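Dear colleagues,

For the upcoming journal club I promised to circulate an example of a predicted protein-ligand complex. I picked one with pyridoxal-5'-phosphate because it came up in last month's discussion. The inputs are reproduced below in full, followed by the predicted structure.
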Amino acid sequence: MNTTVSETLLLGPGPCNVSENVLEALSRPLFGHLDPRFLGVMESVKSQLRIVFDTENSVTFPISATGSAGMEFLLVNFLEPGDTIVVGVNGVFGGRVAALSEKLGARVVKVEQEWGRAIDLDEFRDTIRRESPKIAALVNGETSTGVYQPMNGVGDVCREAGALLFMDCVTSLAGMPVHVDEWGADIVFSGTQKCLGVPPGLAPVTVSPRALEVYRNRSKPTPSFYLDLDALLAYVDGEGGRSYHHTAPISMVFALDAGLKEILDEGLESRWSRHARGAEYLRSELAAFGFEPVVPEGERLNPLTTLYLPDGFNDAEARSKLLMEHGIEVGAGLGPLAGKIWRIGLMAGNASESSVDRLTEALKSVLS
Ligand SMILES: Cc1ncc(COP(=O)(O)O)c(C=O)c1O
């Protein structure tokens, strides 16, 4: 049985394996969190994040917690009780946005779609026109189903309707095109453990000037200490010194800085192409075993491929053998797709033919 952590190939829905550079950054001696040298690293992270998000937004920084905190940060600061939010729900993560919005006392209008298909944008745009919500929310990369959501024209309709466009790009960022400004996305979050190639622990966010104005006009202060936008800005923004709010996870910020440098050295477009080639190779190699794609062409999330299991396939046993005997993790299906599909992540450095070859060799042995 192989239980060596360093030998586990993480081909699930995240986290993925991280590079030697990122591991080295994690083990670097610490600075104090208000040390000017640490603030320099934070500034480097913020400016690199702007490039990766493809935005000019000055409010762009990592929240000190996992991706879910990015979602909560956006909703708790920009949504107030009684506000309307239109949410595209075609999997787990759109469902979470709807559920948290309900808890925050908002009126939630769902635009639903079967799992494994993108939200119908005609219906989504019509719903925004009809409801004039405070926020319209889409998940750009639905990790529960492997769908990459097109965003065409949604930002324009949001502007006409006076709504903010919320986007979850946890699994798409740095693995597929994400263009925050061009798409008119106003409030956006991600996570570090997918195509950014860094361990879980930070949630990069970006906020448009339009959204900042909406925040300034809240009727009541944000009902959160940890995620309050103004308090966080006083900590992460350079203007006139920084005041203590919480103790940033220094090592994770070092790691994100190193991960972002690797991304920009590779180039975003090359990285997106590498993820596309990996996904295509994976689909073609696994077709030989009888795995069929869940998501139609044109809606596929390259970093996370979903495949129907062949007839008579023992899902739990095969995943367990892959992990315990071959040191390879793959993800199970969720919700209505549980027991029917696998979710195979080829993210960051793992988006390569060699990861796929290792998986297919192991599968041959598991199935023999
Ligand atoms: C699309 C999407 N949104 C949100 C999250 C939540 O992020 P985290 O698990 O880092 O809190 C995930 C995590 O997998 C995700 O895939």
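Two points we might discuss: The mean pLDDT is 96. Residues 165 and 185 are 5 Å apart (CA to CA).

See you all on Thursday,
B. R.
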